[in-house]
Amino acid sequence: MGGMPGIAPPDPDHTSSSDRASVPADRGEALPLSRERVIAAAVALAERSGLDALSMRRLADELGVSTMAAYRHVPAKQTLVDDVVERALSWIPAAELLARDDEDWAERLEELVVESHRTVTRFPGLLAHMRAGALGRPGVLNWVGAISQLVERSGASEERRAGAVTAIVWCLNGASRLEEDRDPMLVALDDVAGGDEPTLVDAAEWRDKAGARSAEDMLRVTLRTIVAGLRPATP
C-alpha cells in the first residue's frame, strides 16, 4: 500500500481519538501517537517477526490505532522499513570503534563485523532491505563507511579494499542466513550421513563440524581469512 497523498500533517496541539493508543493501566490518560512511538513499535514488530512481516496494518494493530493514524506519521511502508534499518544500525558502535586507537585495525574490524552480525540477526531480513533507497540513509552510509575506513587502514590497494568490503557484507549476509537455517541444515546432514548414497564429502564429519561451531565462529574465521589477504606479504 502506498503513501496517502493530500493528508495534512497533524496539528501538534491537537490529538484525535484515532491517534491515541489504549490507556495504560497505571494512568488515567492515553498516550498521544508520535513518530517516535511509531518507529519504536515498528522496531519491536520487526524484531519479533522480521522485516518482511512489517506492514502499516500490522503496525496500526500493534499500536492500537487506525491505519490512517499511522500514515500521518510515516507516509509509506518503505519509509517505515528504512527507519527500522536506520534505528537498528544505530545500535552498532561503529563511531566508537573508529575512534579507538588501542587495538590493531583488524581487531576493531572484527569487533565491528561481529557486533553487526549480532544486530542484524535480531531482525530477520534486515540486510536484504539495505539496498536501493536505503543505501542513501545516513545510518547505512555511516555503517558501510566505518567498515571501509577500517579496511583502508590495512594499506592494501584500492581494488583489494573494495573487494574486501563487498566480501564482508556478503559474509554477514551468509552468517545471518546460517543462523536461521542452522537446525534444518544439521537435520539434512544427518539424513545424508545415515543414507547409503555415496557423496563427495563426509556428511557426518560436516555435521559434527557445523554442530560444534556457531555462525558467529564461522564468521570470525572467514573474516580473518579476508584480513590475511589485505595484510602486506612478509618477505
Describe the structure.
The chain has 235 residues and is an all-alpha fold. It has two domains: 26-80, Homeodomain-like (Arc Repressor Mutant, subunit A, Orthogonal Bundle); 91-230, Tetracycline Repressor, domain 2, CATH 1.10.357.10. The protein is built from ten helices and no strands. The longest helix has 36 residues, at 158-193. The termini are far apart. The model is unreliable at 1-29 (pLDDT under 50).
Q: What is the element layout, followed by pairings?
A:
Blueprint: H1 35-49, H2 56-63, H3 67-71, H4 77-90, H5 94-99, H6 105-120, H7 138-152, H8 158-193, H9 203-212, H10 215-230
The third-level CATH topology of the largest domain is Tetracycline Repressor, domain 2
Characterize the overall form. flat
Rg over alpha carbons: 23 Å
Estimate what percentage of residues fall within beta strands: under 5%
How would you spell out the order of helices and strands?
Answer: HHHHHHHHHH
